[in-house]
Amino acid sequence: MATKATSIKLFSISTPQMRAFHLTWMAFFVCFFAWFACAPLMPVIKGEFGLSIAQIANINIAAVAITILVRLVVGPLCDHFGPRKTYTGLLLLGSIPVIGVAFAQSYESFLFFRLGIGAAGASFVITQYHTSVMFAPKVVGTANAAAAGWGNAGGGVAQAVMPLLMTAMVMLGVSEGFGWRAALIVPGVLMIVMAGVYYRYTQDCPQGNFSELRAAGIAIDGGAKKGGWESFKLASANYRVWLLFITYGACFGIEIFIHNIAAIYYVDHFKLTLAQAGMAAGSFGLLALFARALGGWVSDKFAAIGNLNNRVTLLFVLMLGEGAGLLMFANAGTAALAIVAMLVFGLFTHMACGATYAIVPFVDKRALGGVAGIIGAGGNVGAVAAGFLMKGLGNTQQTLSILGFVVAASALCALAARFSSSAVEETAIASKLAA
User: Fold this and answer.
1) pLDDT value at 430 more than 60
2) Coil, strand or helix: which one is 135?
3) In what helix (H) or strand (E) does residue 423 lie, and over which residues does it extend?
4) Chain-centre distance of CA 350, in angstroms?
5) Looking at the predicted structure, is the pLDDT value of residue 424 above 80?
6) Fewest beta carbons within 10 Å, which of 17, 111, 241, 353?
7) How far are the Cα atoms of 110, 180, 354 from residue 308, in angstroms, in the given order?
8) Which string of b and e fits 259-273 if b means at least 16 CB within 10 Å?
């Protein structure tokens, strides 16, 4: 019987594990590209609809708010239906508002579709679930972080590519108003294509698909027996889940917030052009190509030379670095210094995200979907909270400074999530058996 992979063979798609690895980060990339496609075009959209600072804040909040609910739901859905069917459904349903936003004619309709697009952000939970059930403990941190990081880069690519795509449309002779709309149809079409590929070429776990395994009476590794509500209840009763919910809100939540405000911040605060701001903002997202994977890889290495709690200590250190870097970014006096500071705190932010989900598979193996979903939702709660803070203060720079202190303080939650000696010993035994 097929078992979890104990190594990551990047240039292979011959096994179910590696097909799932590559297709899940690709699906995640497409979803994040779609999720953040509007953000770099906001300076143009702001002018077309005459948006106020409060309305822009509402749009940014809407972009991440619905994701909280969808992330809570898709984790248990993975336990019940399997990641293959869950991802396919999310891609197809998520493409509707992505294409729909291109036809918005007012602030209200744009806000409505932007809210719907947020569902695409739940793709992260499915990606982490799929790699967690496919890879053994000694490499699961690296697998989770690499898949998430490469997929996460879709947000950075959107920041850089969408302004260029709109510019290309305008050069073909269309108006700027039509150009941004035509550009936004592209990610919606990509989601539909990806749904077909994912359904055709992946399976739920090394042994096969959940529905077939359950029909054959075979136990499924990684999910509650009944999935769904049982998985959610088990996860929500675990205090460690809620501590990591907070820490993930302070790393991934900040990441989402920066994606949504970076381009317009560079345009308004440093007077960069739309293309320049898009490239600057895009560099933050592109760190995910290696930084998130680095966080997971270092977590695996630290655990190998010590124990499970080394993963927790690493997360604490990374979050302190993130908080300090964010304060540097908030107080940068020039665009050049701001970009350097953004890359520094971005490195810590992405690594902290990877280190968090290197811990997730060990929190409660009976309810992996519930754990992944709740902690993943924490990221969006953090982004929504940051959005409300900015709306209340009416000042982006002041908001960033306050968030820097909040992130540093939340690092204490990582330390509080340390595992008991029995859990550490159990994980060490499981790692030796899987090796």
Assistant:
1) no
2) strand
3) helix 421-434
4) 10
5) no
6) 111
7) 45, 48, 15
8) bbbbbbbbbeebebe
Q: Are 370 and 234 spatial neighbours (Cβ–Cβ below 8 Å)?
A: yes
User: How many Cβ atoms are within 10 Å of 236's Cβ, its own excluded?
Assistant: 16
Sign of CA dihedral 17, 21, 425, 422: negative
Q: Under the phi-then-psi rule, with left for phi > 0, alpha for psi from -120 to 50, and beta for the rest, what region is 142?
A: alpha
- Give me 148's structure tokens: 């998430």
Tens-place pLDDT, residues 191-242: 999 999 999 999 999 999 999 998 888 877 655 455 567 878 889 999 999 9
Domain ranges of the chain: 16-204, 227-434
Burial class (CB in 10 A: 0-12, 13-18, 19+), 394: exposed
Torsion over CA of 105, 109, 110 and 114, rounded to 10 degrees?
-150
Residue closest to 286 by CA, chosen among 348, 343, 357: 343
Distances (CA, A) of 140 to 14, 49, 145, 431: 19, 46, 8, 11
Dihedral over Cα of 151, 153, 155, 161: its sign: negative
Residues paired with residue 180 on neighbouring β-strands, in sequence order: none
179's tokens: 């150009």
Residue 226 three-state SS: coil
**How many helices (H) and strands (E) would you count in the chain?**
18, 0
Q: What are phi and psi of 7, to 5 degrees?
A: -150, 160
Topology classification of domain 16-204: Growth Hormone; Chain: A; (1.20.1250)
Asked if 260 contacts 63 with a C-beta cutoff of 8 angstroms, the reply is: yes
Identify the bridge partners of residue 208 per DSSP, sorted by sequence position: 205
Q: Enter the CATH code of domain 227-434.
A: 1.20.1250.20
- Please tell me if the domain spanning 16-204 has the same topology as the one spanning 227-434: yes
Which has the closest alpha carbon to 319: 295, 303, 343?
295
- What is the C-alpha to C-alpha distance for residues 414 and 207, in angstroms, rounded to an integer? 34
Question: CA 391 to CA 417: how far, in whole Å?
Answer: 32
DSSP string, 243-297: HHHHHHHHHHHHHHHHHHHHHHHHHHHH---HHHHHHHHHHHHHGGGTHHHHHHH
